[in-house]
Amino acid sequence: MRRQIGLLLAPVLLVTGGLTACADSPAGRVTVIASWPEERLPDGSMSPDTEAAAFTAVLDVFAEETGIEVDYQGTRDVSQVLRSGVERGSPPEVAVLPRLNDLQTYVRGRKLYPLDDVLDPGGRTDLAPQLVTLGGRTYGLSVNVIPKSLVWYARDRQPALARRPPATWEELVDVSADLSTPWCLGMGAPPLSGWPGTDWIEDLLLHRWGPQLYREWTAGRLAWDSPQMRAVWQAWSEVTRAGRSTPNALLTTFNVAGLDMFADKPVCHLDHQGSYIVRDYRRRAPDRFDFFPFPPFADRAGTGPTTEIAEDVVGMFDDTPQARALIRFLSGERARRTWRDASGGMAFTLNAGTRPADHPDGVSRRIADTLRRGTLCRDASDLMPAAMTAAFHRAVLRYLDEPEALGALLSELDTVRGRIPNEEWLDLPCLTR
């Protein structure tokens, strides 16, 4: 949901392709599904500057090293397509999941295989931050991380921000007040429009009230219509001028909105986006963009950096030698190095052995550094049950259009929360680096 997305393939192809070709190669094949598209140029070749191109470069190295061929499928909605494949009894062997709650769903349904003996970390302390453990067993390997608590600006247009970025939310509000249209807002991200707004609410709650309350919320224990949540939504309205200058935000896609910072006459000046946005900035305005961390509220200043992250987590849906070999490869340094190089330095990991200096430029090194300091809290929308996440997406879209409806929106979100069984909520702590 936080990517430019392409090819949608029926899950039945995932299994038929693998079964048909298994006899063609002594090493066999492995089927993989993920949410990165295979975008094609007019000549039919794959576009080199996409997340799919970077990931398939990793798969190519794996195939070269092991002789195992890979059937990779990108899909617009990996959660939906994977669920359909599982229900049919024909899932891929390996899936890269962008939603951690999906991982829990498959563990509860006994559709996912544990990875304890696949990875066998033993003395590999570098792997520990990448392992997703549920019920005392490892079911997921985090292979790609997106820091989200980032605020972007055009360096040549906002030199004061480069010299002294806002140290608190209150200072950021003051900066916003001095700009005609401060924030570049794009809520469009079909088929899951609205998540750029949920990222705002998540960052505000995290930086206003801290990791512990954030965990209570993501686990379903904090009411939406609580004083803390109301304050967060109202803070968002204050800086975005909800209902007054936001109609276009509902029609603009997330990766286009921020490009207006670089226009001859800038339409907006600040963009709240994760590290994935660098690809779009590089195409439009190379060397003109920079970021500062989303700041804490003044009464939390000095508590240490806190960053919201999204993760792509690998799970094993069929226990085959080929699937095990791929997951072990993805846990290794060669895969991380290939992914980093093929992405232009924009692939990040929680692995404890990586260094910011391994990245090629100042921006990517500073992004990597945010993952090595302070507290990292996973994207709330990825932790919540799917029904809660969908309602959250709808609520932020309506709020931007009708901020006066906040009370009704929060009550509706609490109604959805109350209908979800306790076992569907995922309770994971934030990570301390």
Descriptive overview:
The chain is an alpha/beta fold and 433 residues long. The protein has a domain of 194 residues: 3-Layer(aba) Sandwich (D-Maltodextrin-Binding Protein, domain 2). Helices cover 40% and strands 14% of the residues. The strands form two sheets. Strands 1, 2, 3, 4, 5, 9, 10 and 11 form an eight-stranded mixed sheet that branches. A hairpin with a 2-residue loop joins β4 and β5. The protein is globular, with a radius of gyration of 21 Å. 46% of the residues are buried. Pfam families: SBP_bac_1 (PF01547). Belongs to the bacterial solute-binding protein 1 family.
Named CATH architecture of the domain at 12-146 and 310-368: 3-Layer(aba) Sandwich
Shape: globular
CATH uppermost class of the domain at 12-146 and 310-368: Alpha Beta
- Return the string of H and E elements: HEHEHEHHEEEHHHHHHEHEEHHHEHHHE
The average pLDDT score comes to: 90
Q: What's the β-strand tally?
A: 11
Reported by name, the CATH topology of the domain at 12-146 and 310-368 is D-Maltodextrin-Binding Protein, domain 2
For the sheet with most strands, the description reads:
8 strands, mixed
By CATH's scheme, which homologous superfamily of the domain at 12-146 and 310-368 applies? Periplasmic binding protein-like II
Number of helices: 18
Structural class: alpha/beta
Low-confidence runs: 1-26
**Which oligomerization state do the chains in this entry correspond to?**
single chain
Q: First CA to last CA: what distance?
A: 27 Å
| Backbone CA Rg | 21 Å
Helix content range of the residues, please?
40-55%
* Beta-strand content: 5-15%
